[in-house]
Design goal:
The chain is built from seven helices and five strands, in the order H-H-H-H-H-H-E-E-E-E-E-H. The chain is an alpha+beta fold and 206 residues long. It has a five-stranded antiparallel beta sheet with strand order 1-2-3-4-5. The longest helix is centred in the C-terminal third of the chain and has 35 residues. The radius of gyration is 16 Å and the shape is globular. The two termini are 16 Å apart.
Length: 206
């Protein structure tokens, strides 16, 4: 198991601490700089990606993901109103699985340096005191993929609370739709099983 409950630390102390603190903060950096730090980490990890393997990439990216993304808020949004029905124990359990799934996704997708380019674009102010950072990932075949990051500033700095695929498709809206079926059929335990299975599939594919 790549993330133990001890290593999970602040993410699994209690529901109050989870909602108040979330994952490790982004050290007060401006949003565009936070995105750049993510891309720098991905570039560096990909250079040694094949040598590191999935577990090695996971270990390198895990602290970066925790700084860049507000994992707790993202998990709450993805689960939706169902979150308020959960006990503290269940919230901690699903948050742990969601965290593993998030880090695993990056460790699996960015596994080798094949000429991928990361470009951080402009920053836009959006409603509710939030900021949108535009960016482009240019694939090895030259195809550009637009990824925009929605930031919210907490007590300790700016963190991503959603990612817009192709510039407009909310990743968390997609997740909420995907998560609704297991939640309706088997509750949070079923969702945890789905997330854990996805992690194993990502690991095998990497």
């Amino acid at each position: 198991m790549m993330i133990t409950r001890r290593r999970f630390g602040a993410l699994a102390l209690s529901a109050v601490s989870l909602m108040a603190a979330g994952a490790a903060r982004a050290d007060g950096a401006e949003p565009a700089a936070v995105v750049q730090s993510l891309y720098d980490a991905l570039s560096q990890t990909m250079k040694d990606g094949e040598k590191l393997g999935f577990d090695g990439r996971y270990q390198k990216l895990e602290p970066v993901i925790h700084k860049v993304f507000d994992i707790t808020t993202m998990c709450k949004i993805a689960i939706g109103g169902y979150w308020t029905t959960l006990t503290t124990e269940k919230k901690n359990a699903v948050l742990l699985s969601f965290d593993k799934y998030t880090v695993s996704t990056y460790a699996s997708r960015f596994k080798a340096d094949k000429g991928v380019q990361f470009k951080v674009g402009e920053t836009k102010q959006v409603p509710n005191d939030r900021v949108l950072v535009l960016s482009t990932i240019v694939k090895s075949d030259g195809e550009p993929v637009e990824l925009n990051y929605l930031f919210r500033k907490g007590a300790e700095g700016w963190q991503v609370i959603d990612v817009y695929l192709a510039g407009a498709i909310s990743q968390l809206t997609q997740m909420r739709s995907e998560f609704s079926e297991p939640l309706q059929k088997g509750g949070v335990d079923a969702l945890i099983q789905v997330l854990d299975k996805k992690v194993e599939q990502l690991k095998q594919a990497a």
